[in-house]
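User: Hey, my collaborator sent me this sequence without any context and asked if I could get a structure. I don't really work with proteins. Can you help?
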Amino acid sequence: MKPSNEQELAAMVANATGPLNIVGGGTWQARNNAKQLYTSGLSGVTLYEPEALTLVAKSGTPLLEIEALLAKNGQCLPFEPNDLGALHGVKSTPTIGGVVATNASGPRRISAGACRDSLIGVRFVDGNGTIIKNGGRVMKNVTGYDLVKLMSGSFGTLGVLTEVSFKLLPAAQASASVLISEDEKTCAATMARALGSPYDVNGAAHVDGITAVRISGLAGSVEYRAAALAKLLGGKIGEFDWQGLRDVRAFADQDGDVWRFSVKPSDGPELAANLRSLGASKIMFDWAGGLLWVLAPGGLNMRAAKYTGHAMLMRGDALPVFQPQPAPIAALAKGLRAKFDPRNILNPDRMT
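Assistant: No problem. I've predicted the 3D structure and written it out in structure-token form, which is a compact way to encode the shape of the chain:
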């Protein structure tokens, strides 16, 4: 099933007699045999106003196409969306709808916020085949239900996105990375110190014994701030693969399950130690220690580690993908699903 417009999509959903897997770029693989519903036919930028820092695009538009358009005008999506196709072993490019559905956000999240923080409008088709619009093309106070935020990170379980609107930012003229050699025990404190400095850090990570802190902006300013930050942290200016970290490329060709832990940044080092005691073979820190990418032998339950936060199985089949929710939140989620998709046909079992 591949609709070419919103009305066709609405009719397909309304007339569906069984479950549907929503497929954008195909970077997320379904775990059931439901009928495939492709959004790639809903493609194209419908509004782009560089002077207003606003973009509206259909959900099936490839992310690379949008990034190329913005780059021509010296602009970018603030949240640095990732591409996990290589991690999942597929040769495809994410769609902007898939980015929103998964709330995909890269290293810049610590300064610019997540995808949902840049999203200002959505159009989608719910499980009854009804077309719904929420938000708009400008930032404003929300009255009523904020469906824009609700749809971001819902993984297609509440509706099939057809159009999304974003606020944009000017692209950085230059970037520099300050590197500090240290172990995992001290990296969170170093990253916290960097973020607490006046040097406007927009990336903080730790990989293979190296803590990396990124600064971006005008060339002259970046040079000054990077030098000052290097002196403050006792590090040096060097190269770091931020895009590789963003897309988790280090794990792409490695056997094993891949986990994603979201915790309080100061808890990152202790959690890493607990995960290693359970058998984790490699760990990468992002978001100043608030996000841990974990590679572990297949079938090991990394949720057995002691932590306060959220764990998600990004690659692997032995366990549920999402962490079980506390009863009150699970009840709210069930109620929302009953309202937006009463037949339970949109991405069934995706978030269970």
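In plain terms: The longest strand covers residues 160-167. You can pass these tokens on to your collaborator as they are.
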